[in-house]
């Protein structure tokens, strides 16, 4: 099968997450796509960071939304890396991107950039929030979208279809054959996350998923399954 390997925040198992260093490492490892997270700074920049605040991944503290881009740039995001903006990632790597947005405001900012730079073929928009996925699909006709879920049941399929998503990105620890079959009946692609162990790889193969999001580049080699 055509199995997609997606680097989680770059290759966060070996490099500082959501940094240019991590994204370049993911590309050099040959991963098929790179997942990253987007927030808006106080002055409206699309900054790449997972949490709502900077405490865990930088030497600073406080909410991203209360800091200007200049203030965020002054922080160390690990090994001397700076907090990047999305435009820098687009220029630093050629690998397709899966951009996770946290709210409708970020969806609108990303949509504007996607229209300006004609990114529909390169960027898939994902979110845990149904309304953000629907907004991205509405604002960028033809955009590929994905609904992410951690705690879910078979209803995640109906939610994805209603939001206009073509893909569901699902917590591998909760995934069942029933949910996979339901998603297939609806014509959805299925990506499992986070797949870091041989046990989870075996489950991915058994369920015949379309891909896996991983913290480690080694999945690219072991993920090319054979019968």
TrEMBL record:
One of its GO terms (biological process) is lipid metabolic process. InterPro entries: GP_PDE_dom (IPR030395), PLC-like_Pdiesterase_TIM-brl (IPR017946). PROSITE patterns: GP_PDE. It comes from Streptomyces spinoverrucosus. GO terms for molecular function: phosphoric diester hydrolase activity. Pfam families: GDPD. Residues 3-224 form the GP-PDE domain. This is Glycerophosphoryl diester phosphodiesterase. The lineage of its organism: Bacteria, Bacillati, Actinomycetota, Actinomycetes, Kitasatosporales.
